[in-house]
Amino acid sequence: MYEVWLRAVVLQQLNHWTGFLALKVGSDAEAQREFDRILAAIPDAMAGSVPAEMVQQHIDDLVELARRWSEDQHYPGELPPGEQDAQARNHVKDLLREDCDEVHRQELANFAFFLEIRARDAFRLLRDQDRENAHYLYGRVCMALDLGHLKAAEHEWTRLQNYVARRS
Fold first, then answer.
1. Using an 8 Å Cβ cutoff, are 5 and 92 in contact?
2. Are 153 and 144 in contact (CB under 8 A)?
3. pLDDT tens column, 22-48
4. Per DSSP, which regions of the chain are E strands?
């Protein structure tokens, strides 16, 4: 899982910096060569054939290259840590789902649809504080689905059902 997270962080950083740089380096031959060099190294880094420190070095090189245009009105700047993590989590979900076969993806989708309908009905029966706690448990179910783990989602769904039953 840690390797997937590292790949997701790299993807998040690539998405954040490469679009801006692709527009800027074209007018600067030296910058274009540096950009091409960094991008050429990324596939090996993503395949896990180099240490994590080297992967981070490639990202740092992109950031350093982008700083040449830090005064540009479209300069993306560094994202706050919370936003970086949120974007990386989205990449983690995508990477994990790539490993799922079509049948498993369909099972996850069916369970998510069932969950949305049943949870909405269950939440109406609860007081505000209990509803907040139920939403937390619902988030755990959704997180398990996002990670492609149907058994964990079913387990969390049972926890949610038991909680609602005790509170209503």
1. yes
2. yes
3. 999 988 999 999 999 998 887 766 666
4. none
